[in-house]
C-alpha cells in the first residue's frame, strides 16, 4: 500500500483522523512519549496509545528507547512523503 493510501485510511476515512493529525503535528516538533502526547492533547493515555499503534502499523511513526517511556518520532518513510501528508490533510478538511 502506498503511503498516500495509508495516510488517507488513517486520517481521511476514519473518525480518529483529527487526533492522528494532532499527534503527527506534535511529533514534527520533537519526539514525545505517549504520556506527554496525552497531556498536550488533552486525551487519555489509552486513546493516544491506540492512535500511536495504528500509526506505527502503517510506518508513519516509530518508537525508540526503552519500553517504559519510549519516545515516538516520525519515520524516514513519512519524512520522504511529507507532501502526501499535507495533501491528504488538506483534502480531509
From TrEMBL:
Coiled-coil residue spans: none
CDD domains associated with the record: HTH_ARSR
Occurrences of domain HTH arsR-type (ranges): 10-86
Highest taxon, organism lineage: Archaea
Protein name: Transcriptional regulator
Stored Pfam families: HTH_20 (PF12840)
GO molecular-function term, one example from the UniProt record: DNA-binding transcription factor activity
Amino acid at each position: 500500500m502506498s503511503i498516500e493510501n495509508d495516510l488517507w485510511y488513517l486520517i481521511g476515512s476514519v473518525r480518529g483522523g483529527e487526533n492522528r493529525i494532532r499527534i503527527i503535528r506534535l511529533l514534527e516538533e520533537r519526539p514525545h512519549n505517549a504520556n506527554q502526547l496525552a497531556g498536550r492533547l488533552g486525551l487519555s493515555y489509552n486513546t493516544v496509545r491506540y492512535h500511536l499503534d495504528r500509526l506505527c502499523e502503517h510506518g508513519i511513526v516509530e518508537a525508540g528507547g526503552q519500553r517504559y517511556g519510549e519516545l515516538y518520532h516520525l519515520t524516514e518513510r513519512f519524512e520522504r512523503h511529507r507532501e502526501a501528508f499535507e495533501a491528504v490533510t488538506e483534502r480531509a478538511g
